[in-house]
Sequence to fold (277 residues):
Amino acid sequence: MSSHTAQTELKLIGKLILEGDLECQTGLHIGAGKGSLEIGGADNPVVKDAFGLPYVPGSSLRGKLRSLLEQSTGLAVPSELVYLSRRKGQEVRIHQSERPGDEICLLFGRNPGRMDRVAGEALESSVASPARLTVYDSPLIQESITPQMRENLDDELTEVKSENAIDRITSQANPRTLERVPAGARFRFRMVLDILCAEDRDLLPRLVEGLRLMEDDTLGGGGSRGSGRVKIGSLKLTWRNREFYSAGSAEQELLTGADLGGLQTLVTGSEFQAKLS
Fold:
């Protein structure tokens, strides 16, 4: 729990920019939806940009981090969850509270209004807080798809994984195909953490925790069937204080070329917060 209170005043102190590589350890599938199906193509294509290149949407990466942190902090329980959607078969439940020091709500933002809880009385919230964390779309590093890899792919940049669902009574197979970005592909991600008060400095270690959890979890679809294992590296952390934006002061490079272990050691150290001034 953060040390934020209801009286904490928000005023930009600076921004932390975290950049790094997200490398696929197994095939990665982040779906494009039913509307992008092509004749003869996979049943479940991956999302691509206007140039036909796969990418990792910022919403997918941000949503996975939020889900993992809600689970790890014990907030993915009925009394802490509210409905974003109650459509049958398409329910969406996320954590939200009115607690000023709730780090999940501080990182990802909080909207006021009435929300139905999964268990208990509805949440009637008048509290709004801006999201500190911005996650951008992660473009594919094209050279990470090597000529040798391309020789064995089903498409120029992707592979097709065939799966079967077996009826337990008739044993009839129901084949389906899943388009994936292959193992070895890398994406370049960028995240910005706004520091709006001194108490926000405690939020970066929580974000790093989420990234470490993701390495031992999965990203995208088909995770329980082998897809979506990723590794994060080549990290760079930069601090830009308010004077960087108002007066052109120099930015401060806090870390470069590190893995998550090195980043976590830095941000949990006793001297780190003094650097954010």
Summary: The first strand starts at residue 14 and ends at 24. The chain has seven helices and 13 strands. The helical segments are 58-72, 103-108, 147-151, 203-215, 242-246, 260-267, 272-275.
